[in-house]
Amino acid sequence: MSLQKASLRLPLLAMGVGCIVAVAGIGLLKLIALITNLSFHGKFSVHEGIPDFSTWGTWAILVPALGGLVIGLLARYGSPEIRGHGIPETMQGVVMNQSKIPLKVALLKPFSAALSIGTGGPFGAEGPVIAMGGSIGSVTGQLLPASAVERKILLAAGAAAGMTVVFGTPLAGVLLAIELLLFEFRFRSLLPVAMASGMAMAVRGWIGEPFPMLPLPSLAPPGLIIATGSILIGIAAGLASVLLTHALHRMEHAVEKLPIPKLWLPALGGLMVGLIGWVDHRSLGAGYYNMRSLLDGQIMVPALLTLLTYKFLSWSISLSSRTTGGTLAPVMTIGGAVGALMAHGLHHVHGFENFPMGIAALVGMAAIFAGASRAFLTSVAFSFEATHSSTAFGPLLLGCAFAVLVSRFLMKESIMTEKMAQKGVKVPEDYEPDPLLAHPVSSAMIHNPLTIRPHMLVRELADLITGEEQRWHLARLFPIVENSVLLGVISRADVLAAMQAAPNTTVLEAGVNQPFTIHADNSLAEAADRMVMHEIGRLPVVDRSTPPVFQGIISRREILQARLHRLKDEARGDIPLPIR
Which residues neighbour 70 within 8 Å (Cβ) at sequence distance 6 or greater? Predict the structure, then answer.
């Protein structure tokens, strides 16, 4: 395959994955609506249904329990990997399993999620759709010849398309892939993911899904009052994200200690969901209508308090019971309630009497997800794209930034990475360019190393090494050079071996005549990669002529020195580096 065709292969595959995920994702959303309407209202309809007790009355309390029972059976006899809330499991597939998601999981996870949400599970559909999209990308990479990196890109492309198809937020889908799955910002991965997300958006629009997903009434132009309020809401949402994450993990640990077989846990959690739903039916299902109501700003304080409390209890109990569902929608509903409550409080402060409820709820939604997941850019982009409110950009940036600051200060791991951290797996949070890529070999190599002539005998070199001159003591690799041309190299180990076998041979005969080399204009990253690949610690530096002209030598020490320069650049003048 030519280089041009190879460079087009991955973007074209990603576009195909985006189209498939869009169709499958919309199908999953329709399936959730169908199950909701059948289980709560006994009617066959794929339009968005609201789970409540208007049809079956008190008997509807059992609907989530029956859904949990089926999920327990699917996990027991199908695959236990269907459990969880989607995005963390997809991240785990990237970090721990070389982006390989089994086909069985790819098929069972969406169906179990649709069953869970459709029978009243307090989850959003976005997590399962994102997981399904990642699975489609991963399976594509497994069926076709693909490297682990290419498979990761296809998985991320599928996940981005999944995010896009649920909310109509293509940029947020791309940023989600970068911040939570790719852990890099490179064109080789960015372009395929962007193409997949763009194709998913095109298919979504063609089918006629609602756009924007969460319309927001027109807002007043941003100013100091809105900025200050957004900062306060961001801090409150950051604290809420920390409390929410810790409470969820403690509840999960407590449930694991219960003397109840795992098969029955989802049913037990479903029963609790049904009982909580009987108190407030808004805690049931994905509840996207709750998010729209929060943005409308018409919910009063008592209703906000009950929505926040019961949604959190229903979501955390259900998720702890080892069922399946999404995180984004319930967490954002809780955050929206926090933001709206903060706005009600601010209305009693002079100057904040007219603080808009819609912007307060929106900042709360975005900020709590930013604090819980640390996906800062995704949270901001999602809130803008889902509402089409350009005036909210400044408040969103402030609210999400302060939420992340609070979260990072009070919480070591995010809601997405906690379980992997418990297994000893560190997920990167900061994506920075490799400093070794920015420096050529010529900037760090030794320009005038010791060299030897090809006719020198091995025993003569051994005498120099064991002699009194310190520079011969320190050298580990000796380039064999004549008339500035590199003929070979000989190491100290080669000298020791030759001294035992044939000390009177020449260094050219005892050494390596075709050594691995590097060019002066290559990066230090390329030099490090070559050393790792060939298990060597030093490389002769040559030009590109034939025969190659010797220019110097580069070792691991010089490469590490380049990293030391980066540490010095970041260190303050009054803070010494912890390096000897």
Answer: 115
Span 285-311, average pLDDT: 89
pLDDT of residue 260: 81
- Residue 85 and residue 418: Cα distance in Å, rounded? 13
- Which conformational region is residue 83 in: left (phi greater than 0), alpha (psi within -120 to 50 degrees), or beta? beta
Q: pTM of the entire structure?
A: 0.81
Q: What's the rounded Cα separation, in Å, for the pair 95 and 84? A: 16
Q: Which two tokens stand for residue 318?
A: 């259900």
Task: Tell me the one-letter amino acid at 458.
Answer: V
**Residue 334 token pair:** 């809780």
**What is the reported pLDDT for 328?**
82
Tally of residues, the chain: 580
Other CB atoms within a 10 A radius of the CB of residue 376 amount to 21
Structure token digits, residue 118? 């459709």
- For residue 133, give both structure tokens: 């999209």
The sign of the torsion formed by the CA atoms of 92, 95, 101, 107 equals positive
pLDDT per residue over 467-524, tens digit each? 878 888 888 899 999 999 999 999 988 898 988 888 889 999 998 988 999 999 999 9
CA–CA gap between residue 551 and residue 442 (Å, rounded): 9
Q: Is the pLDDT of residue 539 over 80?
A: yes
Does residue 232 carry a pLDDT above 50?
yes
Is the CB of residue 134 less than 8 Å from the CB of residue 101? yes
Helices and strands (H, E) in the chain, number of each type: 23, 5
pLDDT for 4 = 52
Which structural domains are found in the chain, ordered by start? 3-207 (1.10.3080.10), 224-264+272-422 (1.10.3080.10), 435-566 (3.10.580.10)
C-alpha to C-alpha distance for 297 and 300, rounded to whole angstroms: 8
